[in-house]
Design goal:
- The strands form 3 sheets. The chain has an 11-stranded mixed β-sheet.
- The protein is globular, with a radius of gyration of 21 Å.
- The protein has 7 helices and 28 strands.
- Helix content is about 20%, strand content about 20%.
- α5 runs antiparallel to α6.
- It is an alpha/beta fold and about 300 residues long.
- β27 and β28 form a beta hairpin.
- It starts with a strand and ends in a 5-residue tail after the last helix.
Length: about 300
């Protein structure tokens, strides 16, 4: 039987596995499903159409499954799906999806979300990620597996952060971050995430191949074209050079890298990631090209204060 504190409120239609622990002051809404071994420590709020897997831990003041902070949201029955063995530290917030983007916010397994992390609507977090204190993840973001995001970083809407990357503290992630790299707060790629890859068991030969490829794709000279290095590589800011020229330079680098002999799976993935972002993406964000709300009706919020009213 579930261990529910006397001061907790669990709606009758909520579905809890027999060994779920619900601590003092918690609230579990009527459309919530919680898997085996999950613990809500104290004053945790679980709302909305939320499905939580096994072995998760929610620390005090978490608010999980609330409605999106998005003016386009129309009150639909959208979802939040959480996998297994995640840790949600104090004051983490995670919202359900919106109707225009498929209606699902999805969190994988074995992730840790530290104090004050915010996961907005329609976000997808894969597995084995660490988001440090006060990381703010906007809507429609995809964070691939084995990513570490340092404290007080912000991730803009529709950004993809590639797998095994490391984001330094207070970084502004406004464009897709390539996999396997260290991304600095000033917008520069600082090199390959060598220590992180080593911890995840990458062979030295594979790490060296990624280092060689990154030196070729992201030379420091090219990153210094403008104030923000990744913006220069994606060709978004003119600075002292033509945007098109910078962008085509990256395209040529990719083409040359592909023609320089066989690549291992990780080098191929890095190249495919870059091709998708610069050739199919908008402003260096591939997911921006997939957005569904560009031609949608303006939310009633804007009409309420117009002259017509």
């Amino acid at each position: 039987m579930s261990k529910i504190a006397p001061s907790a409120t669990v709606e009758r239609s909520a579905e809890l596995a027999p060994d779920v622990e619900v601590g003092p002051g918690c609230y579990v809404g009527p459309h919530v499903t919680i898997g085996a071994g999950t613990r809500l420590l104290a004053n945790v709020t679980i709302l909305g159409n939320t499905t939580i897997g096994a072995g998760n831990i929610f620390y005090p003041a978490c608010v999980i499954g609330a409605a999106p902070q998005d003016l386009k949201y129309r009150g639909g029955d959208t979802k939040l799906i959480i996998g297994d063995q995640n840790i949600f530290r104090e004051s983490v917030t995670a919202h359900t999806g919106t109707e225009v983007a498929g209606g699902v916010t999805e969190i994988g397994s074995h992730n840790q979300f530290q104090v004050g992390t915010h996961l907005a609507h329609d976000v997808r977090i894969d597995n084995h990620c660490v988001l440090s204190n006060q990381v703010q993840v906007a809507g429609h973001v995809h964070i691939e597996s084995h990513v570490t995001v340092s404290g007080m970083s912000g991730v803009q809407q529709f950004v993809t952060i590639g797998r095994y990357s490391f984001i330094t503290g207070m970084a502004r992630c406004s464009m897709d971050t390539p996999p396997y790299v260290i991304f600095g707060y000033d917008g520069y790629i600082q090199g390959v995430n060598v220590k992180g890859l080593g911890r995840w068991g990458f062979p030295e030969a594979v790490i060296q191949s990624l280092r060689d490829l990154c030196k070729f794709l992201f030379p420091k000279k090219a990153q210094n074209v403008t104030r923000f290095g990744l913006r220069a590589l994606y060709g978004l800011w003119a600075g002292r050079r033509d945007d098109k020229a910078v962008s085509m330079t990256m395209a040529r680098r990719i083409q040359d890298a592909e023609s320089n002999g066989p690549l291992n799976e990780h080098c191929r993935y890095l190249i495919e990631f870059m091709k998708r972002s610069i050739l199919q993406g908008v402003h260096g964000r591939y997911l921006e090209s997939q957005r569904r709300d560009a031609g949608g009706p303006r939310p009633t919020f804007y009409a309420a204060g117009s002259a017509a009213s």
